[in-house]
User: Fold this.
Amino acid sequence: MNRIYPDRPVAAVGAVLTRRSDSGCEVLLVKRGTEPAEGKWSVPGGAIELGENARDAIKREIMEECGLEIRPVRVFDVFDSIVRDDRGRLRYQYVIIDFVAEAEGGEISPGSDVREVRWVPLTEAPTMDLTRGTLEIVQRLISNEASGGGDQIL
Assistant:
């Protein structure tokens, strides 16, 4: 199936990983190296492969994009990414299952399809060139921090 001008939505996964540091709560973000959203920052993730379940897909994607072993904890949210071209035709459509996940090992290192990967303080993240879905995630994380949610991610 083509990802560009598809005949049906593409199933995908993303991982919301946070950690505590001296600067407060940080979120793991990647700078996309390919379309859609090339050059924008987002939570790491990608398409589910044929025959792969969503939890295995997110583990594979985070290892490929970030060099980390993770444990998916639970579903954070489901997000629809629909991108049209300048003529109004459907260029991309993804249904993304975002998981709250915990890092269990490895060292962050950008994979071949991302330009950069790094832990970003929540206070800095909204100033970056984020995808729409990632901005929504960051805003929810900030709101959770402000309400005293602290160590328990949403």
Summary: Residues 12 and 46 are 5 Å apart (CA to CA). The first helix runs from residue 54 to 66. The chain has one domain: 10-145. The chain is about 20% helix and 45% strand.
